[in-house]
């Protein structure tokens, strides 16, 4: 399983959209403040009043000076975060006051750099800022820019939360894909250990009584395991290959129950040229043997029938039963088949299994026909896998 990427908060991927949003916001604030001050000064000029507002270019320089300070304060704010409140909120308020306090001195610096001092005082010492009308103007500037800073922090926090939510969704999707891939690989490779144990036990019993038959069964078991490993590496195989695997599996089972088991299988070479999920039939056939042989010592007939119509492939697996009628309770194999169908096809595929009248058990598998390979299959809707089914 490949490692899931973990974007860090300071990475360029996360910083670029946040910086762009802050830049656009600050450009809007700049235009708003400049337009308002310029319009008011124009009005005052036409009414023969003195220069009260700084020139527009000085205000632009003021906002350019404040921009990197704003970016730094926002970055620190996101690093500090908001919990625990008793520790982070005082720091957040101090950051906001620090930024807002620099607004008025930044304007004076802008006027100095532009050389625009008409109608305004040339010097603003710290004592002037702390006394009289200058203090009132400074407090007004602090209140205005503190509100502006609050809006900017709200915008940056919202973008940061969205990025974290988006990253969490990407991680979750990656984990679900990796888990689903591993789960499907496990399901494809499932061959009952109990079945393998019984086959090996049967071969051991034949070594003394019928060495030739034991050798044949060993060859068949080797062929079965080779096909199992080959099919387990692929998500889809041709229907003919799937039928050949089932044929190998049932032939080996017939060696164990030669006096009880009768098979009616379609010719793999004449099967429709479609693709099916690899190893999808083996659990169904194994379930048919378990139901057919349980509870009695009589003969069992297992038949597989194919139907292909309207781009839908239907596979019917039937077996006779004797003795006690099997219950409707599904085993692990059939549940795994249903889970694979849900993952790979969504609601476009189905498996129905259960008693079909007296003395018969039937499983009907319906899947969309893949004529040109798995790539032609529309993507199945996302399915929430249930770990409890493992």
Q: Could you characterize what this model shows?
A:
- This protein is an alpha+beta fold and about 400 residues long.
- It has 2 domains: about 170 residues, no CATH class; about 200 residues, Heat Shock Protein 90, CATH 3.30.565.
- Helices cover about 60% and strands about 10% of the residues.
- The strands form 2 sheets. The protein has a 5-stranded mixed β-sheet, with helices on one face.
- Helix 2 packs across helix 6, helix 3 packs across helix 6 and helix 10 packs antiparallel against helix 11.
- The N terminus and C terminus are likely disordered.
Fold blueprint:
Elements lengths: L11 H35 L9 H25 L4 H17 L1 H12 L11 H4 L2 H57 L4 H17 L1 H22 L3 E3 H18 L4 E4 L10 E3 L4 H12 L6 E10 L2 E9 L11 H14 L4 E6 L4 E9 L22
Parallel strand pairs: 2-4
Antiparallel strand pairs: 1-3, 4-5, 5-7, 6-7
Helix pairs in contact: 1-2, 1-6, 2-3, 2-4, 2-6, 3-6, 7-8, 8-9, 10-11
Number of strands: 7
* CATH domain class name of the largest domain: Alpha Beta
What fraction, in percent, of the residue positions are helical? 55-70%
- Our estimate of the beta-strand percent is 5-15%
Mean pLDDT: 77
Number of helices: 11
CATH superfamily heading of the largest domain:
Histidine kinase-like ATPase, C-terminal domain
**How would you write the strand order of the largest sheet?**
2-4-5-7-6
């Amino acid at each position: 399983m490949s490692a899931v990427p973990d974007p860090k908060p300071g990475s360029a991927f996360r910083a670029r959209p946040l910086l762009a949003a802050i830049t656009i916001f600050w450009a809007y604030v700049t235009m708003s403040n400049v337009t308002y001050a310029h319009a008011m000064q124009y009005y005052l000029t036409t009414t023969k009043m003195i220069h009260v507002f700084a020139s527009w270019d000085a205000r632009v320089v003021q906002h350019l000076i404040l921009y990197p300070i704003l970016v730094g304060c926002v970055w620190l704010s996101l690093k500090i975060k908001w919990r625990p409140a008793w520790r982070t909120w005082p720091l957040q308020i101090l950051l906001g006051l620090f930024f807002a306090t620099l607004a008025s001195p930044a304007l004076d610096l802008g006027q100095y750099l532009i050389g625009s001092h008409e109608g305004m005082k040339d010097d603003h010492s710290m004592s002037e800022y702390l006394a009289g009308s200058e203090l009132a103007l400074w407090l007004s500037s602090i209140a205005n820019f503190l509100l502006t800073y609050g809006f900017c922090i709200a915008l940056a926090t919202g973008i940061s939360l969205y990025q974290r939510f988006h990253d969490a969704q990407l991680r979750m999707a990656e984990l679900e894909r990796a888990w689903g891939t591993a789960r499907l690989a496990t399901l494809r490779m499932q061959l009952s250990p109990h079945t393998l144990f019984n086959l090996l036990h049967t071969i051991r019993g034949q070594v003394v009584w019928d060495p030739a038959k034991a050798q044949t069964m060993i060859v068949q078991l080797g062929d079965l395991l080779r096909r199992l490993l080959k099919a387990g590496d692929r998500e889809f195989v041709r229907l003919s290959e799937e039928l050949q695997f089932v044929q190998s599996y049932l032939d080996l089972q017939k060696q164990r129950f030669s006096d009880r088991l009768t098979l009616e299988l379609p010719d793999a070479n004449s099967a429709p040229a479609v693709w099916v999920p690899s190893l999808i039939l083996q659990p169904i056939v194994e379930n048919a043997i378990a139901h057919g042989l349980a509870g009695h010592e009589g003969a069992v007939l297992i038949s597989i029938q194919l139907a292909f119509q309207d781009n839908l492939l239907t596979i019917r697996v039937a077996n006779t039963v004797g003795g006690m009628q099997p219950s409707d309770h599904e085993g692990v194999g059939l549940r795994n088949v249903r889970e694979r169908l849900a993952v790979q096809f969504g609601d476009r595929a189905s498996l129905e299994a259960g008693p079909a009248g007296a003395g018969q058990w039937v499983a009907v598998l319906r899947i969309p026909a893949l004529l040109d390979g798995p790539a032609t299959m529309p993507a199945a809707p996302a399915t929430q896998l249930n770990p409890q089914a493992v």
